[in-house]
Amino acid sequence: HSVVEIIGAKRDGGRLSAAQIDWVIDAYTRGEVAEEQMSALAMAILLRGMDDAETARWTAAMAASGEMLDLGALDRPTVDKHSTGGVGDKITLALTPLVAACGAAVPQLSGRGLGHTGGTLDKLESIPGWRARLGTAELYRNLDEVGAVICAATERIAPADSRMYALRDVTATVESVPLIAGSILSKKLAEGTASLVLDVKCGSGALLTEPERVRRLARTLVATGNDNGVRTSALLTSMSAPLGVAVGNALEVTEAVSVLRGEGPSEVTELTLALAREMLASSGMSDVDPAGVLASGAAYEKWRALVAAQGGDPDADLPVAAHVHTLRAPQSGNLATLDARAVGAAAWLLGAGRARKEDEVRHAAGVRCLAKPGDRVSGGEPLFELHTDEPGTIEDASRRLHGAYEITQGEVRTEPVVLERVT
Ligand code: URA
Prior knowledge:
Elements: H1 3-11, H2 18-29, H3 35-48, H4 52-63, E1 79-83, H5 91-101, E2 106-110, H6 120-124, H7 136-145, E3 148-152, H8 159-169, H9 177-191, E4 195-202, H10 211-227, E5 231-238, E6 246-247, H11 249-260, H12 266-282, H13 290-295, H14 298-309, E7 323-328, E8 333-338, H15 340-352, E9 366-369, E10 376-377, E11 382-388, H16 394-402, E12 405-408, E13 418-422
Parallel strand pairs: 1-4, 2-3, 4-5
Antiparallel strand pairs: 5-13, 6-9, 7-11, 8-10, 8-12, 9-11
Helix pairs in contact: 1-3, 2-4, 4-9, 4-10, 5-11, 5-12, 5-14, 9-10, 15-16
Bound molecules: uracil.
């Protein structure tokens, strides 16, 4: 095979054969295909696309670039959830122990935040002692004994993807539907889950913002997962406004715990239950009612076990910001919109996110959104709490938040949390 011919074929709108795909990803993993050649191929794929068969093969080859876990020895069905990323999306934290308490095993290999969206591992690391890195033996043991892990994918999981993701980030090739599908699903194939539910976000805070492209991403993800033998379905969910009240690491952990205790914001509980039902259905367990399991306290107990099994203290106080600043409503009316991306950006400015991979996040930093679209607000009422350890960031973050909402005197029609189901 010649990499130049493969790039040229895709540049000219051709289909890549299974053999070409297998070879180019293997050669890239071995260092024989150079970064600039992979960058050119990524751009050709972004411009020309890949059909379902190419995407399925691409995904399988990316998964096979590293270690493939085998969870077949567990005595329970395995099922995982993946979100395409959003603002205030702490769903994994409550959903994983809930589904484990329902009797499935949940191997949740997660990532960190980059840009305006948060990462599950960054959130959990605000719990004193909690470890994201598990050895393979520990991962199997916790899945067997607790029924769930939430941990970092090691460098051995889909190594071609971690290199390629870094390339895409600096070559304007992130926004390709087949490349996103290959990237997300290669890690899920390698993790060995039997079923998978995708939470595909739609709206200003999402990875892709145009509804038609989001729908195409959802359909491609579902087809690519199923083509590779993972029972896959997807929910299209709203990410126009942040999910729930809290945006930022420790603030989101607190909110997830409140969901597990039956006291969470209703939309967060609603989405957690909708995804739990979808996960249980795809594992042949639709007879289990997750709402009953949540109400019984079993999911909260499972959360405590999950945190403790990874070295965390479920009773420890979480970090609290040195400064909390309140922004108030300038007038009375109905909150018409609250822009997820702008709120994510404000939380990021306050220290919740990172600009480069190697930066540290501030665990206590973030924003609490005290009013959500559809709520009636009175002039002078608090709209946002800004939490930060760095008071110098408050002015910029406040400016972002002042531009993030509209108050209207008219009626407000709000979007449902779950927009569509894609199978
Ligand atoms: N998340 C991933 O893991 N990969 C992508 O390409 C986009 C989102």
